[in-house]
Design a protein that fits this description.
0% strand; mainly alpha
Length: 139
């Protein structure tokens, strides 16, 4: 026996590292989204009747967050949940302010800080499909 051959199904180290980084970014985004929306709600940001649809999307973010095991993104299935959470966050943010400036809103800094993280997860999801991706564009 000359040696073990590398199995075609085993991913190489660079691919595994990229996957782990993608999972870490998704986990950080999920925590930022939930934290920002919790702070926004505590500050009374969702109290206006016009913000009811955004509140419902924020609630969907919480539903997705509860599906994550121990609030961690550890697998492809967890990443899909994180994509759902970030999609709901994107919709809530656009309903709050289509320009994503959040001027005059409570916790505006937290919302502005969380937006690029959520969009990053959606961009990662789009890039997974390759050049002919049928996944939705993040923007």
């Amino acid at each position: 026996m000359a040696g073990k051959k590398k199995s075609a199904t085993q991913p190489d180290a660079a691919m595994q590292a990229a996957t782990l980084k993608r999972f870490e970014r998704a986990q950080a985004a999920c925590h930022a989204v939930i934290s920002a929306f919790d702070g926004f709600e505590t500050a009374g940001g969702f109290e206006a009747e016009a913000r009811e649809p955004a509140y419902k999307y924020a609630q969907m973010c919480r539903v997705y967050a509860k599906k994550l095991r121990n609030s961690k993104v550890l697998s492809s299935a967890d990443f899909d949940i994180a994509v759902g959470l970030c999609t709901a966050a994107r919709r809530a943010l656009h309903l709050l302010d289509a320009e994503l400036a959040f001027a005059g809103l409570p916790q505006a800094e937290a919302l502005q800080a969380m937006a690029p993280l959520a969009y990053g997860v959606l961009d990662d999801n789009f890039k997974l499909g390759g050049p002919n991706s049928k996944r939705p564009r993040p923007f």
